[in-house]
Specification:
Blueprint lengths: L2 H13 L2 H8 L3 H15 L4 E4 L2 E4 L1 H24 L7 E7 L1 H6 L1 H11 L3 E7 L2 H10 L4 E4 L9 E9 L1 E5 L14 H4 L3 E5 L4 H11 L7 E5 L2 H9 L5 E4 L4 H5 L4 E2 L8 E8 L6 H15 L1
Parallel strand pairs: 3-4, 3-5, 8-9
Antiparallel strand pairs: 1-2, 5-12, 6-12, 7-10, 7-11
Helix pairs in contact: 1-2, 1-3, 1-4, 2-3, 6-12
Length: 295
């Protein structure tokens, strides 16, 4: 049996939509339809009910889904074993929060490029939700999640680092270099420029500020770390960012740390899909990521 039919079957089962499955697999929708009909004919049973709201697995389809995933998993292991002793090649897709893509992963890729010139590593900036969806869909080989705790039954996670979080302002801001640390009550009256919603550490800080009695924090969210840094450096307000993302700004005096309440470190987890056997290339990338953060 052509395992491409099983890939199409699992994609349609996961998305529930011929259109979405076609987009995920980079196929025409008509090709997905033909492949599903071919699989149903080969197996002698209907796998999906075609409804107005999408494709719904039949009882037989639901029973066969786990077996199909097992076959695809075995195929992945076979391909990995076949290239075990050859030169390291292939393409690896890594999902990560923008803070990690900008501060950490470029140096990881540089090392891998020197050691394995035929290995291609691609970065996809994404939120935790998008990263988990990417792992489930097979679009990502691994992902780095900035979460205190990660609980997805089909996703394995490994805690690899803690990133210190720094409260920041411009050197000329009234809270800079004061003798007494700022309190949460004082901070809750300030303007804050934070990373976009879905960023775990920014969301936690926003919740903490808004929980202060009588709080009136003015929160602006950006999808860009650079936009956040620039607004704060211009004296427009405060922010909190991982130390690795502001080392140069602190060194050249564009930003300064605000004496204030201690902020929790940002946990970094390496995530992979539990049922997918990583390729040799993906294992190599993951190992280099871990070495980088634990150095």
């Amino acid at each position: 049996m052509d395992t491409r039919l099983l890939q199409t079957f699992t994609a349609l089962a996961r998305t529930g939509s011929f259109t979405a499955a076609a987009a995920e697999l980079h196929l025409a929708q008509s090709t997905v339809t033909v492949q599903i009909k071919a699989l149903e004919k080969a197996l002698g049973t209907r796998l999906f009910d075609r409804l107005a709201r999408g494709a719904l697995l039949t009882g037989a389809g639901a029973q066969l889904l786990t077996l199909a995933e097992d076959v695809l998993e075995a195929e992945s292991r076979l391909l990995a074993a076949a290239t075990e002793d050859g030169p390291l090649t292939g393409s690896v897709m890594v999902g990560a929060a923008e803070t990690l893509c900008s501060a950490h992963l470029p140096s990881v890729i540089a090392v891998l490029r020197d050691d394995h010139p035929d290995l291609e590593v691609h970065l996809q900036p994404c939120s935790t939700t998008t990263a988990v969806e990417g792992l489930r869909a097979g679009k990502l080989d691994c992902a780095l999640l900035l979460e205190e705790q990660v609980g997805y039954p089909d996703i394995t996670v490994e805690h690899i680092a803690d990133q210190p979080l720094v409260l920041l302002c411009a050197p000329g801001h009234r809270l800079a270099r004061r003798e007494q640390p700022a309190t949460w009550q004082e901070l809750a009256q300030e303007d804050f420029f934070l990373h976009e919603q879905g960023c775990s550490y920014s969301d936690r800080l926003a919740q903490r500020l808004e929980s202060v009695a009588g709080a009136r924090p003015r929160l602006t969210r950006f999808g860009s770390i650079e936009a956040t840094r620039s607004c704060v450096a211009a004296g427009l307000g405060l922010t909190a960012l991982p130390h690795a993302n502001v080392v140069e700004s602190l060194r050249d005096g564009r930003l300064t740390a605000v004496p204030g309440p201690a902020l929790p470190d940002v946990s970094v987890h390496l995530a992979r899909h539990r049922r997918r056997q990583p390729t040799r290339a993906a294992d190599t990338v993951a190992a280099q990521v871990i070495r980088h953060f634990r150095r």
